[in-house]
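Checked the freezer inventory, then went back to the computational side. Two predictions to log before the end of the day. The first one is the construct we discussed on Monday; recording sequence and tokens without edits.
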Amino acid sequence: MDFSSQQSNGFGNGVGSSRKTIGNTRRVWTTRGEKVLLAALKDLVAKGQKIDNEFRTGYLNKLEDALRKAFPGCDLQATPHITPKITTCRKNYSAIVSAN
């Protein structure tokens, strides 16, 4: 698979790009995009948006707003873009913690 020929599909603004794989479109996040997402999550925790190990209702909208502020013109949405990234981060974090 050639990663150098990624399609921008409107994401050519620093957040990342998406590329067509067999059967679906997969999002490729840039390091800067990941940093902005993680900083926004940390900010939500610091502001008390996480209670009883869960985020309050509306946290995805706040993450979308943070990404739009950092990357004007990006059209990332919670359901197809942000939620899978958070799920992947949780799985990776759990694997690292359990390995130690």
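The second is the one RB wanted added to the comparison set:
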Amino acid sequence: MHAKNRLPSSGHNTPSPPSSPFRSPRYRHGRSFKGARISPFPPCRSPAHRLAWLFLFVLVRRQGIFLFAPLIYISGMLLYMGTVSFDATPIITQRPAPGAVYRSPQLYAKLRPEMDADNSSADAISTIWKKSYKGDKWRPCVNKSSGGLPESNGYIYVEANGGLNQQRTSICNAVAVAGCLNATLVIPNFHYHSIWKDPSKFRDIYDEEYFISTLANDVQVVDKIPEYIMERFDHNLTNVYNFRVKAWSSIQYYKDAVLPKLLEEKLIRISPFANRLSFDAPPPVQRLRCLANYEALHFSGPILTLGETLVTRMKEQSANSGGKYVSVHLRFEEDMVAFSCCVFDGGEQEKEDMKAARERGWKGKFTKPGRVIRPGAIRINGKCPLTPLENFSSRMAAIDYTVCVHSEVFVTTQGGNFPHFLMGHRRYLFGGHSKTIRPDKRKLALLFDNPKIGWKSFKRQMLNMRSHSDSKGYELKRPNDSTYTFPCPDCLCRTNKSKDK
């Protein structure tokens, strides 16, 4: 019989379609509506086929088991392939990201034979500097004053902190501030630092008499504070009012805040003083900076003599060999390596030594709660100093400065005051071009970590970096750039500027 149609009749006698059979306990146990039992096995099959049919029959009749079908399938595949053992915990290993590990020695050993056999480098380096600034060059044009100075408003005593080039920043900025305030500058005192541990004074590094005489018509400089002034403070500098000036303060701040106190006390102290004057300053300030840095600061006799001897020797050997006089600034020193938090190939001993160095120099800075140090990420981001494969005190740094500033090619591998001063000074000496190669350390980190790279490919990458550095040789100073790195146009003038008008 057919089930009755529950919808209203339309007048026709067409029977309604049969309804879906309902499920009942008897049906789920394999019984038909009429009580007949259905066998799950087709006739005339082998035991294996019968087992397979039984498995499929159970899956079909027990639909809830479909929830476990994916798990059963995956388990079967893993067991079949033999990749999982249920009596051991699987070990998951992760390869470091490209460029995260120091592998330069291995790559150097691999490429060294090809490097030695390559004779084309001589031709490449002979034409290293090709770019020009619109066909023109620059020349130094720092003008000295010819007239005398008015009566001084008082004495300024500054403490120059940091290494050689940070101290150099302090000296030049102090000259600019003293000149703008019509003050007398006392020869800056070099602050003894726990990192550099150099007790050198100004006269040990620079020619003090030459410094004073060069600035004579622009800024009055003395080597000590007069006695009658010191008597007012019981001959104790700690009794002198000390200004704690914020970094990168404008020259207007000195006129508004420092000058009134100077006029009142006749002697003030500013400590520390590095980076306490903004680079975005008016032309009179920049002129005094240029005058101090490029004209007044000459190294002392012993340093100058040794430096010139080394420079002469390098130039002679360069001319005789047909090569180039190349200087490289690695900055691979304990304080720099420790501060970078990079890991090299010294193992656990290196890690412990650098950890101790960080604690000595910057107590607590790197062990603050929540601070995480990731050496691999630091290397990938190009923040690690390059090693001698990719060495001080202020007096040694002065010799380094002399040798580097006169080289035909200067290669800098790390940031800091030293390369920035060098690039600016080289621009001042070499017609506006820094003649400096600045490698892209992010790219280098990837190249040094590639064991398959060949010498030709590696060389091509190096030439591209050199070409990019050449194009950046001439750069003009922007408002907040350092005058000591970008002396154009504050300290240099175009050679044929009149022709452009």
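For RB: The CA atoms of residues 122 and 473 lie 21 Å apart. The first helix runs from residue 25 to 28. Let me know if you want it refolded.
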